[in-house]
Design brief:
By secondary structure, the protein is an all-alpha fold. 95% of the residues lie in helices and 0% in strands. The longest helix has 76 residues, at 2-77. This is GOLD domain-containing protein.
Amino acid sequence: MSLRWTVMTQDVELWWLVMRSLESFRIRKMAAREAYMREVNDKTNKRVAQLSFMSLGLSITVSLFQVWHLKRFVLKKKLI
C-alpha cells in the first residue's frame, strides 16, 4: 500500500507540474498578446491624432479661401 501511495503522490506532483507549466505558458501568451494589442492601439491613436490635425488644417484652409473669395466677389461686384 505504501508503493501505491507513492505512485499516486508522484502522479499528483506530476499533474501539478504540468498545470503550472500550462499556466505559465498561458500567462506568457497573454503577455505577448497584450504587448501586440498595445502596439496596435498606440499606432491607431497616432493615426487618429494625425487625421484630426489634418482635418483641422483643411477646415481652416477652406474657411480662409472662402473668406478671400467672398471678399474678392464683393469688391468685384462693388456691393460695398
